[in-house]
Write a structure and sequence with these properties.
Elements (H helix, E strand, L loop, with lengths): L14 H9 L2 H15 L4 E11 L28 H13 L4 E6 L9 H13 L3 E5 L5 H10 L3 E3 L9 H4 L5 H13 L3 E3 L2 E3 L5 H12 L7 E6 L16 H14 L4 E4 L8 H9 L4 E4 L11 H11 L2 E2 L6 H4 L14
The protein binds S-adenosylmethionine (SAM), 6-(5-methyl-2-OXO-imidazolidin-4-yl)-hexanoic acid and iron/sulfur cluster.
S-adenosylmethionine binds next to loops.
Length: 342
């Protein structure tokens, strides 16, 4: 197998190489991922992010997993874009509860220019609190991405969700190329990308390989890589999807850490249904970020009490807010262990 040298993140992964990582004996895979994790990050630190749905429901897209699509009857009540001051107040509470990043999500197919002034006000207000800012607002043009960055937006979340081949089985109102185009506008605007996917949508192992291959061969790796476990939503086409086995979820996390070594790898949706032990395995395999608070966008999270008990029991600390990726990389060459070449 190709040497896994974490000092030089690669963009030329082949699908066969990514598949071979998934196929490793579990103990070997987790060990390698944990070694790469240590190379770039303090493994005792977990980034805590908080999400807020700033515009809920009524979305024109037909993503088969989503509670917020207007195409499905999920019983969700749609609402208008929130008032910036209410968003900033929520971010203030998130910060007081220990979050370091605040992510604002809107159920939009694409961003409309008329909403930019309100968005700029909330982004700059959240940034002024000393939080990292992230938003997920659907498709963007490059000039819109520039406007968001100028307002103080650090990260833009836009997921590829699954392999290019499986994508059209999940959503038909947009294409994989549409997603790639928005990601390229975000990068061109000088913003960091948050881009990952979902497991448990009926995809195969080959699709999970395809997703991670797509992410690892982007012109720049995602700075943040959320791995969502599908939260099945009644009324959506994927409501009866069988959950992915926990071991396979951990393998996905570990391979994400290996192919995008400098990314913040996040256990995103689906954490509520996971045991503490499974989450601990994910952290061992290289996950170093979670969403905290009572809920994601429309679905619940374990909550503050359970999360602080978990982190305490595992001896893990919240990642400092100002620890930018460049600052997190070791300043000097740490010892290179022979396990990197096999
Ligand atoms: N409308 C924007 C978009 O789709 O890019 C932003 C919001 S969307 C809800 C953000 C991401 O949440 C999706 O790309 C998907 O990965 C994830 N997601 C949404 N519903 C989910 C569910 N039921 N289970 C797991 N992940 C989900
Ligand atoms: C991501 O990959 N997961 C988050 C965030 N980016 C925006 C959203 C998860 C949403 C889960 C379903 C819900 O709460 O509606
Ligand atoms: Fe809309 Fe995003 Fe939900 Fe798709 S995932 S239906 S784009 S809110």
């Amino acid at each position: 197998m190709t040497p896994l040298d974490p000092a030089t993140p690669r963009h030329d992964w082949t699908r066969a190489e990514v598949a071979a990582l998934f196929d490793l004996p579990f103990t070997d895979l987790v060990f390698r991922a944990a070694a790469v994790h240590r190379r770039w990050f303090d493994p005792a630190e977990i980034q805590l992010s908080q999400l807020l749905s700033i515009k809920t429901g009524g979305c024109a897209e037909n993503c088969g997993y989503c509670s917020q699509s207007a195409h499905f009857d999920t019983g969700l009540k749609a609402s208008k874009l929130m008032d910036p001051q209410a968003v900033i107040a929520d971010a203030q509470r998130a910060k007081a509860a220990g979050a370091g990043r605040f992510c604002m999500g809107a159920a939009w197919r694409d961003l409309k220019d008329r909403d930019l002034p309100k968005l700029a006000e909330m982004i700059s207000g959240v940034k002024a609190l000393g939080l990292e800012t992230c938003a997920t607002l659907g498709m963007l043009r490059e000039d819109q991405a520039v406007a968001l960055r100028e307002a103080g937006l650090d990260y833009y979340n836009h997921n590829l969700d699954t392999s290019p081949e499986y994508y059209a089985s999940v959503v038909t109102t947009r294409t994989y190329d549409d997603r790639l185009q928005t990601l390229s506008h975000v990068r061109a605007a000088g913003m960091k990308t948050c881009c990952g996917g979902i497991v448990g949508m009926g995809e195969t192992r080959a699709d999970r390989v395809g997703l991670l291959h797509a992410l690892a061969t982007l012109p720049e790796h995602p700075d943040s890589l959320p791995v969502n476990g599908l939260v099945p939503i009644a009324g959506t086409p994927l409501q009866d999807s069988a959950p992915v086995d926990g071991i396979e979820f951990v393998r996905t996390i570990a391979v994400a850490r290996l192919v995008c070594p400098q990314a913040m790898v996040r256990i995103a949706a689906g954490r509520e249904g996971m045991s503490r032990e499974l989450q601990a395995l994910c952290f061992t395999a290289g996950a170093n970020s979670i969403f905290v608070g009572a809920q994601l966008l429309t679905t619940p999270l374990p909550g503050e009490d359970e999360d602080s008990r978990l982190l305490r029991d595992l001896g893990l600390r919240p990642m400092p807010v100002d620890a930018e990726p460049a600052a997190r990389a070791p300043a000097s060459e740490p010892e290179r262990a022979p396990i990197y070449a096999s």
